[in-house]
Amino acid sequence: MPSVVQALSNYNLPIFVINDASDEKTAGILSEINEGADLVRLFSFSINRGKGAAVKKGLKEAYAAGFTHALQIDADGQHNIHDVRIMLDASEKDPNALICGVPVFDKSIPKSRLYGRYLTHFWIWVETLSFAISDSLCGFRVYPLASCCDIITRSKTGDRMDFDPEIIVRMFWNSIPIVNIPTHVTYPQNGVSHFLLFRDNFLITKLHTKLVIGMLIRLPNLIVNSNRQKSQHWSEIKERGSLFGIKLMLLIYKAGGKHLLRFCAFPVLLYFFITGGSARRASLEFLSKAAHKSAELDLPYIKPNIRNSFRHFLSFGDAIIDKVS
Length: 325
Prior knowledge:
By secondary structure, the chain is of the alpha/beta class. It has helices spanning 2-9, 24-36, 51-64, 84-93, 111-128, 145-154, 163-173, 197-217, 219-227, 243-275, 277-296, 306-324, and strands spanning 15-20, 40-45, 69-72, 98-105, 141-144, 178-185.
């Protein structure tokens, strides 16, 4: 903790430290930091309330003190403090956006945590009908405080490990732009995790149940907002998949060949078809041009429709599978 505070002091910004009922030794260290550093403002809970409650305390205190933005960073040294300037610059460039760190892990991360993150990623993509959120669990962010604190005040957000994924989804639902910044994240040797397997997994499962229901309630607006996105040149559109997905596809092919891969790819293509408004429109536009061209050549005319568009997606998937095999 002292090294984290010392490194952050180089940016000459106030540092809000939240002591979530730490033990006596840690509380003493925090008191020494508070007394020895002019930039530090220490707030303490008498009982442990959880990470989410601590983060919300810091955000509210910063907003009450008149700040417009706040950078959230873990105290255990996992996050790359050298990227603070990159995060702040991104926030200055787009002050209305939520700036989110996207972890680039080294070999120190346990494999169970690395692969387990993708389960939450999947549900976040379902709850937002979007791939705008690259990672919902990283606690390295810059919040626009007005919109963030408004959501915290109006909604009952989680007080523990469920806060980070919930607040980012709710900000997305409120049309707050999401900016993803890659950042290296390490797991320090002999680090102590405060993630409790059963309690926090139960809270996160409960959270996703609540957010899926919230998504269904907001479904018409989410679809409309998706369709209103400005069209981009194909070269400017970011890939919607991930390296993990590509590796998983290769593993499935190795295990069961082309037919198993085609079977597993069907629900993935269906998901991309449902959520990819611009891709559907491009498909229908292409099919319409192809149909008119067929008519000019006295070939059978096939009227473009949603069913044909989905078959177009499936053909694209088959082409990828052929390349893999």
